[in-house]
Every structure is written in C-alpha cells, then in structure tokens.
Amino acid sequence: MKKIVVLGAGYAGLKTVVALQKKIKGEAKIVLVNDVPYHYEAMRLYEVASGNGPYTGMSYELSDVLDPAVTELVVDEVTKIDINNKKVELKNSAPIDYDYCVVGLGFTQDSLGIEGAKENGLPMYNVPTAQAIDKHIEMQMKRYKQKQDPKDLNIIICGAGFQAVEVSGAISEARPRYAKLAGVDPSQIKIQMFDGSPRLLPMFSDKLVKYELNVMNKRNINVLYPAYIQKVTADSVYYKMADDKKEDDPKEFKAGTIIWLMGFGGSPVIEASGFKNRRNRVMVGEHLTAPESDDIYVLGDSSSVMVPGKKWPYPNTGQMALSMANYTAKDIAARVLGHSRPTAYTYKSLGEVATVGEDQAVGKALGMSYKGYLASVLKKIIIDKSLMETGGLKETLAVGRFDFYR
Fold first, then answer.
1. Taking burial as the number of CB atoms within 10 A of a residue's CB, which of 75, 141, 162, 226 is the most buried?
2. Does residue 61 have an active-site annotation?
3. Which domains does the chain have, with CATH numbers?
C-alpha cells in the first residue's frame, strides 16, 4: 500500500488530506505531520494579533476532520526532507518513509538583510507569533501608565501589504482597549506604517487604493511610502524616503512596538532539504512537483507558479493554496489508482479582498470592484468558503464569520 506523507495542516496541506481521504480510501495510507493538533485560518491572524478574538475562534481540532481509517496524525516539527532516501525527518520522532510527499509548511518572514529587523521586529506567521504581538502591545500600554514614556504609545508596522493593512485596521479597532490599559485617550495611540513600494496594493486599481488609504487616514493610520528602512532597534525604526539624498542621515521614528510584516518566504525546511529555491520557495513543474523529485509536491507559500506569459509568479494566497491542493489530490489519486494523470495545473483567481477593520475593505472578484461594507461582507464569505473546503459544514458553522451586519 502506498504511503502519502503530507507536511503541514494549513490551507494546502489539510485540503489535500481531506480531498485524498475520499479518493483513495483502502488504496493508500496518509500521514499528516503538523506542529500543532489544530488547523487555524491564517488569513485571520490579524484577529489574534490585535486581541480582537482568541485563536480558538478561528481554528478547529484536526481530529474533527481526519478519518482515522485512512489518515494518521503526527504532531511534530519537520526538520528536513531526505529527497534521495524518501524520508521525512522530524524533531522528536523517528523519520517517516513516503511514496509521495506533499509540502505545505506555510510561510515565514525574512529580515531582508536589514540590521536589527530579526532581533527587534515582531513577526506574524502563526498563532504564537500573533499572540505575542497582542501581549507586547498590552505590555507597552501598561508600561506607559507607569513610566509615561510617549514612545510606548506608538506602534510601527513595517510593510504595507495585505497582512500589514489588515493588522493595522484590526489594531486601530483595538485602540479603546489598549488606551484603557495606558490610561489615555485612544487618539494618543499612533499607528505608523512604512513600505518601500512606490505603489501600495498593486493588485487593486488606483481608485480602490485611494479609497483604502482614505479609510486608513480616517482611522489615524499613517503610511509612509516609498520609505526604505535602514535599521531597526529595540525602540526605533530608521528610514529614508525615496527622494532623500544618499548622504542624508536616516530619519528616526520611535515606538514601543515594532511589527515586522516584510520579507515573506516559504519554510526554512526547503533550504535545509536542498531544494533549489528562492527565499525558500520552489519553482514547481506542471504537476506542482519539485524539480528534484516528481514524487514531492510543493504547495502554498513554499512554492512559486509562474503567471503564463509573465516574468513573475502568482501571489501566494489561501485561495491559490486550496486550488493547488485540489489539483494535487487528483494527481496523486490518479497515480495511486493507476489512472491517467490530469493535465498541467492552471490557476484562475476569483479575486482578492483586503480589510481595514470589520466593516471596511476593498476587493475585486469576478471582474468587478468592491469597496466599503460590501467588500467586508465579501471577505467574510471568502473566509467561510475556505472553512467549508477544509473543515466542512460543521467547522464552518463553529468558527465561520456570519456577522455580516458589522
């Protein structure tokens, strides 16, 4: 009997398992390896980072959706894939052999070589790191109440992409709670974003970006761009604007909290395993397999799929991860059952939505643009759709977003 080892229980990994369980029951064994026993909605980490919701409100136990007759769950950390010997090495358990391996280990963040970013910037790529952000902000607010140091009220977000915009909106809505801890008016808590791009959210039209920036301005979220971060210390970000002269000294912005949402890349397991990669992302082939082995599928944030006719890959989104998982399940099932493999993987985006708080967002879907409350509803529908794909109706009803009135 063939053994399929799936690494990671994010959108890509868990959807692959859920789909395969229905296709290969009795014909193959699945082993799912994940570092925690639950699945969480990565696109909702901003809820945890801002303290606006516990992680249990956007997660569910893996045992709820796994079929024990087909799938074994191993809770452990993956350290390396031994490509030549077809083994997965784990931190606390014996290596696991595989016939087919699916890599869906999610994303991490890189310092981009910027001095002090790794040591002083708070990243956000899983539940513990998101929780750490909220705890740190709370600590700084309490510190302000004792020390009256103005910088403790300042929150810097390095980056202004999807995640950064959504985190900024969520933190702006958490201002009253943070202000109460500090004993100040919510308007005294400053949110400052830095980004090096000449244009924010390039996937959206100028009109939508203008609307988004206007909403952020009304929420007292300040964005500086293009601003090139030079150095990060424990309480400051040093930066230069694009029109600054080379000999000019960097400007300084002081803050008690510095959140690092730049330099997104794949899992470090990619590099450790010897895959050819760029920032821990593998350029996969037409069946989403690695160049080093047709038996290893690399999905989600650890992969790159080129846009046809372009020189750049698709952005790694939850929507795309689910699409890749559906294809991978079909391809592996065909190989296990001795059927013809499907034609090459293709991707068609249904759209993207970026929120700024609970009731404001911008997005595009099926060729149309959306903004404001309607876009925020669309975002919640997208969240529920992903839950339905990985957890089914039970988990969607348990942790889905049905508060469309907000």
1. 141
2. no
3. 2-107+266-349 (3.50.50.100), 117-262 (3.50.50.100), 351-406 (no CATH)
